[in-house]
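Input record (Table S2, row 450):
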Amino acid sequence: MDQYRHFDELVNLEQGTIAREIFVDEDIYNQELEKVFTRAWLFVGHESQVPEPGDFFTSRMGTESVILTRDFENKIHVLLNNCTHRGMKVCLYDEGNSATFTCPFHAWSFAPDGKLVGVPHENELYSHVLEKDKWALIEVAKMENYKGSIWATWDKTAPDFFTYLGSAKAHLDLALDSLDGSEGGTEVFGGVHKWISPCNWKVPAENFCGDSYHNPSHISVDMIGIGPSAGQGEKGRRDNELADAQHVWVSFPGGHGIHSALKPENNAYIESYKDNPIVEEYYRHCYEERQKRLGDDARLVPFVGTIFPNTSYHGRQPRALCAWHPNGPESAEIWRFFLVDKGAPKEVKDMLRRYYMRYSGPAGMTEQDDMENWNYATAGSRGTIANRLPYNYQQSQNIHKINDPVPGLVSTQMTEENARQYYKCWSSYMQDKSWDEIMSHPAQVKDERI
Ligand code: FES
Ligand SMILES: [Fe+2]
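Output record (fe (ii) ion complex):
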């Protein structure tokens, strides 16, 4: 038997089943770190977190600490936070500004571009044998600054970031572009929420692929009304801007899954921030500008999505990028970066900050519902008896269309197709498949970017 048959059995798309052990098994988790997290493109941070030369933000790729830096030539780097002498972290801070990173152990110093620039007693102790240029901090193989969001991979054979994203790019754009439709222009504001949750990292990543079926678990926040017009009597956790839209659930080569929506032609502005007239006016203005700028393309509006393997976004209400860092088979370290238009008025930022915190993050009312599900679902994946039955992923099988009405493998009804394709892709990584094989699935989708 082929040694990799195992993964095709664990993720069985023909039957629409996935074995529970992929969420709790220690050996599978360790293989993920090696096979997924050293190859895939991972989200590291945002350029707005390192605006000045010498600025740094400490992040993670998989389980390893990395430093996002801006050097004195204004170039951004992603460096392994691991001293090349004995492995001590050279940076123990979450963020800041420094001309060098001086290792706390024996005080080797590294510049923001990673170069080793200082070694105590170098001449006496190393007798000129130390070739400092060989002992720089390890730098990622590839890095991309996409509209301010910084992505990186350790694999120099990985496809470039845009090939990797494929047509999922148009949906990620909706989170990264300004609300008025101009390119980019967003910033991370209010700090990064970081917390540890007892769930496998794939569970929330799958949730953000477009698991709209779990809406009943949010019924309490819907009843209370925590949305941006709650004070004006709107129920729900967000104002329903998409009430008149055709929802689309789309999967892409590379394992990305998104849930967006297409507004009808000639759609009118829907008031969605009624609690504050300044905010409402800003959103109306942005809507009108976006219509002018994008024309028919303005009909595409975001909901959520996951860029394989562990980066998700909330596109609009609320708006954020999330990283689901692996932290053990049954633990995820969750980081949420809230996004806002850089040029938005203070009133808008203030209102959004309050709304985002009400909704998302460790104390967010909606995210608390989600975490309860993720945590118990992870715990429920172990157990001798429980493990006899795989999970059911049969929802809306074989009803998808190709490139209709948007590029990708598309469903216009609620579906688990995105999750199926996500795990199919995960299985390809776990079988050490080539980039060509990884990027050619789903086979039916001919992505013009690939
Ligand atoms: S471990 Fe960093 S200088 Fe020795
Ligand atoms: Fe949810």
